[in-house]
Specification:
The complex is a heterodimer.
Chain A: H1 6-9, H2 20-26, H3 29-36, H4 83-108, H5 123-130, E1 138-140, H6 146-152, H7 156-164, E2 181-182, E3 187-188, H8 197-213, E4 224-229, H9 236-247, E5 252-258, E6 261-262, E7 265-266, H10 267-270, H11 279-282, E8 286-291, H12 295-310, E9 316-321, H13 339-346, H14 350-360, H15 366-389
Parallel strand pairs in A: 1-4, 4-5, 5-9, 8-9
Antiparallel strand pairs in A: 2-3, 6-7
Chain B: E1 25-28, H1 29-43, E2 47-51, H2 67-71, E3 76-78, H3 83-95, E4 99-103, H4 114-122, H5 124-127, E5 137-141, H6 157-161, E6 167-169, H7 174-186, E7 191-195, E8 203-206, H8 208-211, E9 223-226, E10 231-235, H9 238-252, E11 257-261, E12 264-266, H10 270-280, E13 283-286, H11 295-307, E14 316-318, H12 329-335, H13 339-349
Chain lengths: 431, 360
């Protein structure tokens, strides 16, 4: 399957039956407007963008990847989601939002420390993608990884304890906010260096393909999602991996969470061509742009990308236009972003949008949604209490897990391996 | 006269010399590495090789000759010129239990991938509290070659050996190359395997035991290449050969030098080094890399910490010159330790009056 650059680079009229990825970027009026007025992005002093009225949520006539025009359909037969799915999505986004808010509270109370990067506003991307995955599929993230961990199934207690630096955290307090790992849930990081997770994710996808083709494990059809931001898309490793993923047709989806800002550097000021989705076809893979504030749209695009990867047809680059409501980290005063821009995106809060959709389409009522919020409040209170009461890591943990094979600490004065001394981890030791 | 040599010590200048009558075969380091890779790939289908020119070109230095034909392109991968990318891909694959061998054409190019070697390979087992181990090997030629200039000649042993979570190995002979590479591939932790381009073509005798496919050397144990009683000389990689030659010259002058082949830079075999210094009371460290914060500095500190009372003379440190590697042949010779430098340093340690500065 090869793509020429022209398939996606220019918008063109969309006939019925075209694939939904092509449709979403060429018929999306929001994108057209973007193309016309560069003042929409970035520069805080010259934002004169008038938003279109909130887009109707796209509902295809059928659930397959071929989709037609965007229409508003009220009958339940054509709903994008069932009630159960809707409640699941809602709960996941509420968990993400409330968790991050609780993190901010705990940080200012001194329970959490160091670098903490919160995900408020971007929940639609995490929920939209990760809720479609199997447990064996892999997620790789950056330092803004709390919500990816939660969506992938790591318990809130484990994530909160990790943030408090307690021994009951998912990494026993050794990783911290930026290094969430859970082998059980196939969340393999948590990387502080932007761009670092992309090759690792590509390697995880490589291992899935290797297992299927070389080791002949027929059930190895796992896909990998790599989440990263707009700033990362200027980094060399990103391009190296787009090339190799397309070259070797790896089952990976590169998910760009374009929130327009890399700390205080606006995407427009940093990037020669800010349309990131275009970089996919340049390497021979599908490139898609989607409204990342709308969980249902993200989910539709994600479905297609994941199916493509699972059947062995290679990678996809998905650019999600989203926004972080808080600063880059809790230490960021966030002075460079225009309050009007923030207000505009706050009006497109993905949680409110889903709530509105569910209520208008009679998938749930106010009461049910409120009860989900209450449930999550309780989950979080329990998580904080659990973390508070958990012990700090013991001193012996300092030297543990440096190596899988602790003989790496070498041979001690008595000629035996240091790790064989039962008292090895008790002092700071002569390592 | 040559002193009696106990172990299967190797003197490349005397290629045919053997300690045991049964050590019949000779093998170049290149063949040793190739056979080790071949055997490990054949024993475990999860082992695969990845790097620039490792496949169709048969390896930039022909180390992976024949492997593409034998194992196919899925297990011997020619990569694009993307060190950061493919080192990271190797790490990601290792997270999931595959056992990649990532070849850098030289370790100078590893600087483009050093983020992955340190941050996503070395530190991951710790950051994930033991959930994710990284059984990866990064290998390639390290240190100076001949006339390749400043950007192709740096020795990275000190840089990698300072990082917790990594194991750093530096083979010298064919036996070292085979045993340590096999150990590295079987090891569940990230291993940086520093070869030397100028040693690839050198031949060493190997015993039947070395040729066995289950032969493995322990990581973290140095080898005493030559026993002595007057001064200890530590070295790794190519410098072991120079140290052995120096030991020959010193022997003629009545100084009995003990030569230690470190084999493993991290973990450093401090026990063997200290035991030797306690015996000889004098130490000369030899390395090809830059002097400041180098391997010799660490060895000196270890000896001062553990065996200070045994030292009869200050530790002599021989290292490469503190300059980027020049190109001109005579300057390059001055920038890398030579046998005469080692002899001079050993004599200084033994209180023979010899001037400090090198002569051109």
């Amino acid at each position: 399957m090869s793509f020429s650059a022209t398939n996606f680079a220019q918008p063109r009229p969309v006939p019925v039956g075209i694939r939904s990825n092509e449709k979403s970027l060429s018929s999306d009026p929001f994108r057209f407007r973007f193309r016309g007025s560069p003042s929409f992005l970035g520069s805080p002093h010259s934002l004169r963008f008038n938003p279109t009225p909130p887009l109707k949520l796209a509902i295809p006539h059928c659930r397959r990847s071929t989709a037609a025009a965007v229409t508003d359909v009220k009958s339940s037969a054509n709903m994008l989601i069932t009630k159960e799915e809707g409640l699941e999505l809602y709960e996941d986004m509420i968990l993400g939002r409330f968790f991050e808010d609780m993190c901010a509270q705990m940080y200012y109370r001194g329970k959490m420390f160091g670098f903490v990067h919160l995900y408020n506003g971007q929940e639609a991307v995490s929920t939209g993608f990760i809720k479609l995955l199997k447990k064996e599929d892999t997620v790789v993230s950056t330092y803004r990884d709390h919500v990816h961990a939660l969506s992938k199934g790591v318990p809130a207690r484990a994530v909160m304890s990790e943030l408090f630096g307690k021994a009951t955290g998912c990494c026993r307090g050794q990783g911290g906010s930026m290094h969430m790992f859970s082998k059980e849930h196939n969340l393999i990081g948590g990387f502080a260096f932007i761009g670092e997770g992309i090759p690792v994710a590509t390697g995880a996808a490589f291992s899935s393909k290797y297992r299927r083709e070389v080791l002949k494990e027929a059930s190895a059809d796992h896909v990998t999602l790599a989440f990263f931001g707009d700033g990362t898309c200027n980094n060399g490793q990103f391009y190296e991996c787009l090339n190799m993923a397309a070259l070797w047709k790896l089952p990976i989806i590169f998910v760009v969470e374009n929130n327009l800002w890399a700390i205080g550097m606006s995407h427009l000021r940093a990037t020669s061509d800010p349309e990131i989705w275009k970089k996919g076809p340049a390497f021979g893979m599908a490139g898609v742009h989607v409204d990342g504030m709308d969980v249902l749209k993200v989910r539709e695009v994600a479905k297609e990308a994941i199916e493509r990867a699972r059947r062995g047809d290679g990678p996809t680059l998905v650019e999600c236009e989203t926004y972080r409501f808080r600063g880059h980290s809790l230490a960021d005063p966030d002075e460079l972003r225009d309050p009007a821009e923030k207000a505009r995106y706050a009006a497109r809060d993905p949680i409110s949008a889903l709530k509105k959709y569910m209520i208008e389409n009679k998938l749930a009522n106010e009461q049910e949604l409120k009860s989900i919020e209450k449930k999550i409040d309780e989950v979080l209170d329990d998580a904080v209490e659990f973390s508070d009461e958990s012990p700090l890591p013991p001193r012996s943990q300092l030297l543990e897990n440096v190596f899988a094979d602790s003989k790496g600490f070498g041979i001690g004065p008595d000629g035996k391996y240091r790790c064989e001394d039962p008292k090895f981890t008790q002092g700071t030791a002569h390592v | 006269m040559l002193r009696a040599i106990r172990h299967k010590s190797i003197c490349p200048a005397f290629g045919a010399f053997r300690a045991f009558a049964s050590a019949a075969k000779e093998m170049t380091v290149r063949e040793a590495l190739n056979s080790a890779l071949d055997e490990e790939m054949s024993a475990d289908p999860k082992v695969f090789l990845m790097g620039e020119e490792v496949g169709e070109y048969q390896g930039a230095y022909k180390i992976s000759k024949g492997l593409l034909d034998k194992y196919g392109p899925e297990r011997v991968l020619d990569t694009p010129i993307t060190e950061a990318g493919f080192a990271g891909i190797g790490v990601g694959a290792a997270y999931y239990g595959l056992r990649p061998v990532v070849e850098f054409m030289t370790f100078n190019f590893s600087m483009q991938a050093i983020d992955h070697i340190i941050n996503s390979a070395a530190k991951s087992n710790y950051m994930s509290a033991g959930q994710i181990s990284v059984p990866i090997v990064f290998r390639g030629p390290n240190g100076a070659a001949a006339g390749v200039g400043a950007q192709h000649s740096q020795c990275y042993a000190a840089w990698y050996a300072s990082c917790p979570g990594l194991k750093v190995l530096a083979p010298y002979s064919s036996e070292d190359a085979r045993g340590l590479l096999k150990a590295a591939i079987r090891d569940p932790d990230p291993v940086v395997f520093l070869e030397n381009e100028l040693l690839y073509g050198e031949s060493f005798p190997v015993s039947a035991e070395v040729l066995d496919s289950s032969f493995c050397l322990p990581i973290g144990k140095a080898k005493i290449e030559r026993e002595g009683k007057d001064v200890t000389i530590t070295a790794y990689s190519k410098m072991v050969g120079y140290a052995l030659k120096a030991a020959e010259i010193l022997a003629k002058e009545g100084v009995s030098a003990e030569v230690i082949n470190l084999r493993s830079i991290r973990p450093l075999d401090r026990t063997t080094i200290n035991a030797s210094v306690r015996k000889t009371n004098r130490l000369v460290t030899v390395e090809e890399g830059f002097p400041q914060h180098g391997v010799g500095a660490e060895i000196c500190t270890s000896v001062v910490e553990e065996s200070f009372g045994y030292l009869d003379a200050p530790v002599e440190r021989i290292a490469g010159a503190d300059v980027p590697m020049p190109y001109a042949a005579n300057l390059e010779r001055m920038a890398v330790p030579q046998v005469e430098d080692i002899v001079r340093a050993a004599k200084r340690a033994c209180h023979r009056s010899v001037p400090l500065a090198a002569t051109a």
